[in-house]
Design a protein that fits this description.
By secondary structure, the chain is of the alpha+beta class. The chain has helices at about 5-10, 25-35, 40-50, 120-130, 160-175, 250-255, 275-280, 320-330, and strands at about 1-5, 15, 50-55, 55-60, 70-75, 90-95, 100-105, 155-160, 180-185, 195, 200, 210, 225-230, 235-240, 275, 285-290, 295-300, 310-315. Helix 2 (about 25-35) packs across helix 3 (about 40-50). The longest helix has 13 residues, at about 320-330.
């Protein structure tokens, strides 16, 4: 559990509590999990310099943690500059003094990263909300509490102050946030609904990919529930409810059962879909989908100030709707 209070935040300190699933983790690994903007080398230096305490005592980077221990961290500012504000249009679903819910378009990177320093969601919210964003994620991630992959569209929540950020982060960590996705997959799912429980870790050979890694020490348990909404010839529309939030979790799990997300260039073997492929007309080369058919449809969480349950929903984007229309017309399921 992430414990945050305004006094801690003003001094740049954050307190975390070690969970059962983090038992035995090295201290530096634990911190790199919670603060991905900081490199492992940078975090080791902070630990060695006395910026981290475990149960009010100093620790070494290699120290093995136990459930229930309190880890207090004082993080210096990252050396990289904050993203520059850019007047990028935003589809704002909800906004108040504590948070905002945004319908992220496909193709937009959430925060600056190698090769993507501009055109990010972070730059857009800097422009729209200015100094009203939380700082807990570091200067590169103002207001960013969670993330969506670049080519995944849909609901994402940003925090407008540090207290809101800490409370929202706790809800995500304790799995009290309900996430619902919509996906179109290639293939024919064997079951109408099922729960996929497979550990996920870094791919052994490809740096940008994740994989099912049952025996790897850094793998993390992951759970995804799915339900088939409609079947087509060679395709299916699915409702996805991930219980955990691992990197690329939905994409890896659906690929594992032989039904990769349509046009998932990393896990599905193809990057685009033409209208002619669905109509079986080789002459029609109009591209109707050039990104993974995965959309964060709904997000439910508790308001950080009132505790009221909030329900945000982002309508299906035009490209996914276009594919569904073609499937209904040209690939209806025949019993």
């Amino acid at each position: 559990m992430l414990a945050v209070n305004s006094g801690d935040l003003s001094s740049g300190s954050v307190e975390l509590t070690v969970g059962l699933d983090q038992s035995g983790w090295r201290l530096d690994v634990f911190l790199s999990h919670h603060f991905p903007n900081y490199s492992r080398v940078h975090l080791r230096r902070i630990i060695t310099a006395g910026g981290v305490q475990v149960d009010d005592r100093g620790g070494k980077p290699s120290y093995r943690l136990h459930p229930g221990q309190r880890v207090r961290v004082t993080l210096p500012e990252l050396p990289r500059e904050a993203p520059k504000p850019e007047p990028i249009p935003l589809d704002i679903l909800y906004e108040d003094d504590w948070l905002a819910a945004i319908n992220k378009p496909p193709g937009m990177v959430v925060h600056p990263a190698r090769g993507h320093w501009s055109g990010t969601l972070a730059s857009a919210i800097q422009y729209h909300f200015g100094g009203q964003l939380s700082t807990l994620g570091g200067p590169c991630r103002p207001g960013i509490v969670h993330r969506l992959d670049r080519d995944t569209s849909g609901v994402i929540v940003v925090a407008k102050n540090d207290v809101a950020h800490g409370i929202l982060a706790t809800q995500f960590q304790e799995r009290r946030v309900e996430k619902e996705y919509f996906a179109i997959v290639s293939g024919d799912p064997q079951l109408d609904r099922d729960r996929i429980e497979q550990p996920i870790g870094a791919h052994p050979h490809e740096r940008e990919k994740m994989a099912i890694r049952r025996d790897h020490p850094r793998s993390r348990w992951a759970e995804t529930f799915y339900e088939v909404v409609e079947r087509f010839e060679g395709f299916a529309a699915m409702r996805i409810l991930p219980k955990t939030g691992r990197t690329h979790q939905i994409r890896v799990h659906l690929g594992h059962i032989g039904c990769p997300v349509l046009c998932d260039r990393h896990y599905g073997g193809r990057a685009r879909l033409t209208r002619g492929e669905l109509r079986r007309d080789p002459a029609d080369q109009e591209v109707i989908l050039d990104r993974q058919a995965l959309h964060a449809l709904r997000l439910r969480l508790d308001h950080p100030a009132t505790g009221k349950r909030l329900d945000f929903e982002a309508p299906l984007p035009g490209d996914i709707q276009a594919v569904l229309q073609e499937l209904k017309r040209w690939r209806p399921r025949r019993c």
